Amino acid sequence: MLVIDGKVETVNKTTEDWLEDYSKQKVEEKEGYFTINSVGFESFNEDSMFVTYNVVPESNGASVVLNFSTAKGSISSADQISDLNLKTELEKLANANYLEVLKTKLNAEENTLGDFEKKLKKI
Description:
The structure is a single chain. The chain has three helices and six strands. The protein is an alpha+beta fold and about 120 residues long. It has one domain. Strands 1, 2, 3, 4, 5 and 6 form a six-stranded antiparallel β-sheet that branches. About 20% of the residues are buried.
């Protein structure tokens, strides 16, 4: 999942928070890869899954690469994701990431506005 204008640290934190919302465990990091066990999504048809992810910098943002595994095996195709209702959950992650991007942009614009207001008062 490509997050345009996303920063690696922000996308990683958003993904970590999203996964921890669906598990009683914490995300663990090892050599740039993050893992979490016993993830139980609301719309998921299975009891729980094991998730591994990493965040990769891109020229126009950051990409999240997610791997899902259940007791039955790895979930790898778009059809499997759709069949297991994971698409809905991934859309929630995408929305959370883009919300963070928008918050960052809004904060930058508010800071610029504040600087202009200070200059205007001096004039």
